[in-house]
Amino acid sequence: MFSTRIPKIKGTKKFFGKNQPVISLGLPSLDAILGGGLPLGSSLLLEEDEFGTYATMVLKHYLAEGVVNDHPLSLAGQDIDTKKLVADLPSPLIGNANQGSYNDDGDQLRIAWRYQDLPSKLPSNAPVFGNTYNLGNSMMKSELEKVNIDHWNSRKSDHSYDDLLAYLKKHVDDAKYNLSVPVENRTVLRVALCSLGTASWVGDIVKFLINLRILIRNSCVTCLITVPTGLFQEFMLHRCEHFCDTVIEMKSFLYDANLAYSDYEGLLILKKLPVINAWCPTIPDSNDWAFKLKKKRFIIERLHISPELNEQTHREEEDMSNDYKTQRVVSNIAQEF
User: Fold this and answer.
1) Among 16, 61, 95, 298, which residue has the least CB neighbours within 10 Å?
2) 74 and 168 Cβ atoms separated by less than 8 Å
3) CA torsion sign, 159 to 165 to 168 to 170?
4) What is the value of pTM for the model shown?
5) In angstroms, rounded to a whole number, what is the distance separating the alpha carbons of residues 191 and 168?
């Protein structure tokens, strides 16, 4: 069990009732949705939005959180410059999400008089897990140089997935991450695999994901994988989802003119939640999540639709239904004559 084999590691946390330590993805709201964070020894499959813009933002938060916690990073990509990706990692905001104001917008809220004297911020000694990042500012080069960052690229290889698996195995076998080797100073290796499944990758992606799952299961390694879903056939995408521990789809509203979604950039669809050393996953209190950009921050929150817009949409659907019924009646009468 992880609880007896792993000492406390910087940037990890154990939750009550769970034996599996987790890391933060750099997005406290997403950590909460997943039941606290991403479990060690697990993989997260992130299905990209149409142009991969927002999936890349999530990936950057995951890597930036690793830098802040001195976690080594290992990146692989065939169609993306991973060095440029690291150079554009967002910088952490002063303080953190747990110490920020309850009112994120800084607006004055009308609350009951009995609550007006309560502090608007958590105490400074409150437990901290996960940071908040500013997408408008890049992380300082001096901070990046403090962390061991490896980049894999094998454009000339005819066996991309096999070569990548062998590369990752060398890292996982390192005593710092390998649980079969007793060491005191353990740390977490954060792996980022960018846009798997494009034409630049050669080999069997499903076989790779199976072997990757076996490789990292009993280790201090986490893996975030992004895939461009538009390049996958449905049955192949389902097979990839089956061999990953967590699956999240990002759906952009880029071409959606629905006013009900005007406050958001897209939907966050939970397809699979992690079940590591547990009977069942932690079930979030909602299945409707959306993301947006606000004040240079990437925000994930429950999907809220204003009552007026919701009622308007309902009326439009009723009108369309009534028009359809009227057309059917007219058509039936015409056929009788």
Assistant:
1) 16
2) yes
3) negative
4) 0.81
5) 9
Please name every residue paired with 301 in a beta bridge, in sequence order, or none if there are none: 290
pLDDT tens digit sequence for 304-319? 776 554 555 445 555 5
List, in order, residues 6 or more apart from 64 with CB less than 8 Å away. Answer: 26, 89, 90, 91, 92, 131, 133, 139
Give residue-wise pLDDT tens across range 126-142.
445 789 999 999 999 99
Closest by Cα among 281, 247, 303 to 55 = 247
Q: What is the pLDDT of residue 16?
A: 60
Which is nearest to 62 in space by CA: 19, 87, 31?
31
Residue type, 86: V
Cα separation, 71 vs 85, in Å, equals 17
Residue 231 phi, psi dihedral angles, 5° rounding: -95, 0
**Cβ–Cβ < 8 Å for 11, 71:** yes
